[in-house]
Amino acid sequence: MSGPLRVAIFGAGPSGFYAASQLLKVAEPEFEVDLFDRLPTPYGLVRAGVAPDHPNIKVVTKAFDKTAKHERFRFFGHVCLGEDVSREELLERYHAVLYAVGTSTDRRMGIPGEDLKGSHPATEFVSWYNGHPDFAELEFELQTAKRVAVIGNGNVAMDVARMIALAPDELAVTDTADHAIDVLNAAGVEEVVILGRRGPAQAAFTNPELREMGELERADVVVDPADLELDEESAAWLASEEAHRTNKLNVEILREYAAREPEGKPMRVRFRFLVSPVEVLGDDDGRVRALKLERNAIQGGRAVGTGETEELDCQLVFRSIGYRGLPLAGIPFDDQRGLIRNEGGRVCDASGAPLPGEYCAGWIKRGPSGVIGTNKKDAQDTVDKLLEDAAAGKLNAPTKDDVLELLTERVEHLVEWTGWEAIDAAERAAGEPQGRPRVKLVEWDALREAGRGAPAA
Ligand code: NAP
Q: What CATH architecture does domain 5-104+325-415 belong to?
């Protein structure tokens, strides 16, 4: 088959868009890129993960929109891999298929009581307040909970704690889903406690996110100075070259917080360190009433339980200990790591041999780490492998023509780029009178309806 080489990318988040843009910039050979997503909307975690009060991070979509205007680019939204189209059908039609589907579920704590009512994965809360249509119906007990525990010391834990603490006027100017604004504004939470299993020196959150906690309109930040007394090992590590500037600054910022007098704001965000939940405790109705925490010590950089325990009363728990990938039909998966089995972005079978024409990028390739920009280099590394294979004649050899016929037959509500533009316009128009960037459509039917401005090409 002559003409440009055809690549299907599954997952229209940052990694998918970066890979698309990189492929379209190649002059020889030329590529045509079809970018698919299960949702009718593009941008992946930029739309469904980035906190709504961080609009600057979302500006990256402007670059993605430029890619979408390329004459050799098409977007096919509302297409489910493994249901609407199989991996085999893609391989019949493309020289290469690149999976950039992210890591859509949560890591488990593996402790008793984890699934009690009122104990939720942070991933679900994040998707809910961001209006992901699969999560819009969820309910979180924010009205009744007085104390909320957030387990984990990463930036997602910070997003979750901050979103609960935001004042109504801070939320009002964001694109937080309307259902979440209503619940958050009516919340009766008095304290959010962020629990780190290691110490302040080892926290995974970054400085700007930690600083924001000290600037909340309706919440005092509280840190017990005793929690900041570093053990010998942590102190030596923090002073060494090995420690990142971020770690050093985190400890400095926390020290400044510990020295603050609370201003008597209606809510508190409290940091606790060196504690691991070992059980979620429930009441007679099976609802969360407390966490059993074990005190930890740092040994060899790891958190090791000391056997000393305490109970922390709380009525709502968010487990924010990282994301995990889900296997995709027929695509080799490393169960232990929760990732597609791959070597530097080339999808591999169980023996480690690369599968011709199959690639992956982003979190489903390397795991859930880094900021959005990290995925640019990651996607480029995968694209470089794809280019090497193209030069060596090692891509897949498609036997069938264009995918569009198959899609129009199978997918009742296919949403192409013009369909997304129609959704986007509807959301922006609804947001404008309220001074918000958009009011998100959060129901599948509403998204399909708005996306109907998308006739098949
Ligand atoms: P993360 O940064 O990997 O943090 C996970 C946290 O969970 C760590 O503090 C980890 O502690 C803790 N943890 C893991 N297993 C645990 C267990 N069994 N018990 C208690 N604690 C446990 O993951 P994330 O917060 O999900 O964020 C994912 C990525 O997205 C990160 O790279 C993050 O920076 C990025 N992100 C960035 C932003 C932003 O730029 N504003 C916002 C959100 C997310 P240990 O360190 O001890 O393992």
A: 3-Layer(aba) Sandwich (3.40)
